[in-house]
Amino acid sequence: MATQPPSTATAAVDLYETASQPDAPAAGDAYTFLEFNTQGDDFDYPDFPELSQPPPRSTPLTSSIPGAGTSSSSWPAPPPPPSDAASPEPDLTSQDVHTPPASSSSPSPRSASKARPSAAADGLASGVVALNFEDPVGTGAVEDGYDYSKGDFVEHACRYCGIHNPACVARCNVPSCRKWFCNSRGNTSGSHIVNHLVRAKHKEVCLHKDSPLGETILECYNCGCRNVFLLGFISAKAENVVVLLCREPCLSVNALKDMNWDLSQWCPLIDDRCFLSWLVKASVPSEQEQLRARQISAQQINKVEELWKTNPDASLEDLEKPGVDDEPQPVVLKYEDAYQYQNVFAPLIKLEADYDKMMKESQSKDNVTVRWDIGLNKKRVAYFVFPKEDNELRLVPGDELRLRYPGDSSHPTWQSVGHVIKLTAQEEVALELRASQGVPTELNVGFSVDFVWKSTSFDRMQGAMKTFAVDETSVSGYIYHHLLGHEVEHQIIRNTLPRRFGAPGLPELNASQVLAVKSVLQKPVSLIQGPPGTGKTVTSAAIVYHMAKQGQGQVLVCAPSNVAVDQLAEKISSTGLKVVRLCAKSREAVSSPVEHLTLHYQTQFPEAPTLCGVMGKGLYEARLTPALRRGSVEPQTW
């Protein structure tokens, strides 16, 4: 075969050929990969038929190759058997594979050798491009309308797993939520819709418009209650229909018993943590859709539900973002010093404060109907209904609320803060407003009520921990080391014990109560435990009485609630000790059975505590007479 040497210019710029030359020491027995593909005409190529030939296909794929005219192929044609023993190189040139023209009329063997593998590679590449990896229409994501891998779900797809069959999903009908969930369990103990309702404390559900029952809000036929956890169904005796009724109070209404309904056959809509299958299908009709559904664990559900409280539009993919799943430093049993103690508990208190603020701010209620009144102190009082089942937080006298009106074409926006002074048995709240000017008393509907969050208690906790960390003398050494979990030798306080451990004005103590009083008087720190009705309040009052009689100064008594403080103050006062009940300024106008012991009352009527100590509660109503004349205190009934 004749060869033509390349020109000087070509040799000067042929970097590909230069790079393929072997190193000098190994030129006789080693070749690089590039050199293997660019040898001359006389090189004997090894033959690897099992690697160089494509596998046979029953149905060949077609792919057009540029420059090949009308011929098409997805794989290069198999080479013919070698015709010359001295040149076993397979001839890859065929009518189906286009070979680029040479630069001269007599192409060099080196150029042809480089062109043949290049053409084969082009043929392989074009065949791979022709492969279709997409699902056929009607069996995959194209028909579904969204891509599971990217989380692009249709609007009514389950926010947990992505199932979107209209017969299997239901919508949470709370205005601030409006998310869709399916009735399948997946990897959880209950269905996804029930899991969401329980964790989010939502109760209203709406079916899909394309479901067998259509777009239907589940509610009681008689009273309109939409709490699905109270709803059930009964069948009519004669007609082939079912009626939704709530368990309380409609199921026990006598008027409904006279109708053509069999109330004894009432069944709840939720059974075994799933909606009934005739209402919302619990199984996925398509096996392929079930396989495509996202597998979610109960732990992921908890995390995404917590994330939705701050970001309603968040998705499961947001859980993987840095910082979302950061856990606070765990609590330990022993701490090295007060700084470590503060570093552990300060973030926990911050999380508790943020959660408490979020919960209170989320309990707002709109479209409230208000009726107006004037209190004895000439302040405006707004009465409205705040149902208990609509809010997670429990209202108590003294709580601060904000009443506001959004405004309309004839009335400006208005808002005022007040505190709860009374809760009626009809779930009616009496809110005394601070400002009486500009109150829209001519309006009764369209108001909104918001909780007012105060950080006072959390700020005090943070301040106390800071003081505990920087000032070792803020508490005694015994308490300091006990709080840090250190081993401390038990101490005994040596003082004169009374011969009688009871206290005047209190019931006689039994043996266990006497032992508790004796133990507390001799130890720096004590814990008294017992079920309700065992006399813990009486025992505590007796302990305070004996501590005060030891003459070591004033005794500070604290309790976790205002009710507990009032009970302790009343019991301690009955022993004859002088008691001053401290309370928040917002609770000064709230009636209390120990109001005569409060600081604000004793400063206003300094002579009243002495009379009360002599004559007890008999003078309580008479003592309020001057206050009633001034219009500053509500009358009390005894």
Protein described:
With 638 residues, this protein is of the alpha+beta class. It folds into four domains: 1-133, no CATH class; 141-218 and 269-310, no CATH class; 363-454, Elongation Factor Tu (Ef-tu), domain 3 (Beta Barrel), CATH 2.40.30.230; 495-630, P-loop containing nucleotide triphosphate hydrolases (Rossmann fold), CATH 3.40.50.300. 29% of the residues lie in helices and 11% in strands. Strands 9-15-12-13-14-11-10 form a seven-stranded antiparallel β-sheet, with no helix packed on it. Helix 11 packs antiparallel against helix 12 (456-470), helix 14 crosses helix 15 (536-549) and helix 15 packs across helix 16. The longest helix is centred in the middle third of the chain and has 24 residues, at 338-361. It is globular, with a radius of gyration of 42 Å. The termini are far apart. The model is unreliable at 1-39, 48-54, 56-78, 82-107, 135-151 and 609-638 (pLDDT under 50).
